[in-house]
Amino acid sequence: MICVSLGRTRHKMMIAEHKVLAEKGAQLVELRLDWLGTPPDLGRLLKDKPTPVVITCRRAQDKGLWKFGEDQRQTLLRSAIVAGVDYVDLEEDIAGSIRRFGSTKRIVSYHNFDETPANLEEIHARLASRDPDIVKLVTTAKTPEDNVRLLEVVKNAKVPTVGFCMGDLGVWSRILCRKYGSPFTYATFSAQRTMAPGQLTFEETRDIFHFDQINRDTQVFGVVADPVAHSLSPLIHNAAYQAQGLNAVYLPFRIPREHFTHSLHVLEALDVRGYSVTIPHKVAALELAQTKIEPVAEIGALNTLFRGQGGEWCGANTDCDAALASLRLALDPEGDPLHPATDPLAGKRVLILGAGGAARAIATGLIKAGAAVTITNRTKAKAAELVQSLGCMIAGWENRGAVGCDVLVNCTSVGMHPKVDESPFQQHWLDEGMIVFDTVYTPERTLLIAQARERGCRVVTGVEMFVRQAARQYEYFTGKSAPIEVMRATLKKAISVVKVT
After folding, report:
1. Strand 272-277's sheet: what is its strand order?
2. Which is nearest to 17 in space by CA: 33, 6, 28, 3?
3. Contact call for residues 374 and 401 (beta carbons, < 8 A)
């Protein structure tokens, strides 16, 4: 179950938003009485309440907004119990002075906005001794390991325990706590009005991660990156699991660079079955791959880790296959993009803009396919290093428009949202019939793509590559063919929302 936290300064707005949540399908709503600007009127708030409620009133010392007296606060909580509310949230130090009455269930809670203490089991035992129906144990993750320690407490608890970590390092624990027995998690009504750091919205928790469908048998996958909040991978992978009825969830794991190797070893306790790996971990992840699928070794980076049949970590780079498949379809729409009888890329002159990880992966594949590759980059030294390792050609950034090519590939971030009015390649440099491939997918219709279409070029958007690399990851993770149309439609819908807002 998802408990949606609701905080407004006016009774009228809190009541109105409570009704909206009920209409959206919320099953439990937390009314944060400390947010109200005037003394709370329980009768008004609870009259004809459209869902079960949790009554919570946090003091300033607990990062709440209560500005009236402590005696008044405790009287309010007692009144809520007498009124027969479904749940009342009590801090550890007052739980003993507010007696159980009627059918109201007691949540005895502990919040730590600074850290995840070492003595979690001791704290949990104290909370469990205060006559709770539910223990709530919420801390702040300073490392990914903090989440694992807290979820272990939830898993081993004798009393039903809501437990997860706050902060951007703890976002995934708000979802995964369900697998370990948490009776519910907390979400917010609006992304603009969160009650705690790292809180997801009700719609995200329900419609992307499908929290209520998670159980102890749910398989876990995810993306590891830093930052990771912007990633659209959870959206399309979870949509694919739903489409095929798989008991699986895909989570965003923010892993700082300095914690990468240690963190993935710690996360072994969660039995994660596969990771999408992105910036800045694509090279470091090579050390964890016991089996490497070509051309990972040549590229020198991977974007996928998955469990082999023997339980070992296997490493793959799906960027390369996805990019080449996208280009082959543009050149030969009727051919097999993965296993062409005659590769349409052979002999093509390709100019790649950029010299980062994506450029390396795509260039490696193109060279193996027999294309003549030229690299250009703003920082010439970086381009020279890549060219030397791959054995291809180099062009100065200032001369890129003079390089004759059949295929242009943009591997820079130029044109990416929000800088959508920029292009890495002047329109008058584009020739009719040229293939123009932009790996940027937010937005899909970049300025480069728009201008290429105007010049009569054939275009390949970043959406195609992103979906194809994700689909290949999905196949490695699940052993099933990916529902690629579902993934593509989900991504395009999300991008259109981002562009509008």
Report:
1. 248-254, 219-225, 272-277, 304-307, 313-316, 291-292
2. 6
3. no
C-alpha to C-alpha distance for 216 and 177, rounded to whole angstroms: 10
How far apart (Å, rounded) are the C-alpha atoms in residues 22 and 5? 13
Query: Where in the sequence numbering do the catalytic residues fall?
Result: 111, 136, 282, 319
CA 421 centroid distance within chain: 27
pTM to 2 decimal places: 0.93
Distances from the Cα of 174 to the Cα of 32, 184, 185, 255, 321, angstroms: 19, 9, 6, 16, 34
Q: Is the dihedral of CA 20, 21, 27, 28 positive or negative?
A: negative
* CA–CA dist 448, 427 (Å, integer): 8
The runs of H, that is alpha helices, within 433-483 are 447-454, 462-478
What are the 10-residue block averages of pLDDT along the chain, 501 residues in total? 97 97 98 97 97 97 96 98 98 96 98 97 98 98 97 98 97 98 96 87 97 98 94 97 98 94 94 95 93 91 94 95 95 90 96 94 96 97 96 97 97 91 97 96 94 97 96 97 97 74 33
DSSP 103-149: TPEEEEEEE-SS---S-HHHHHHHHHTS--SEEEEEEE-SSHHHHHH
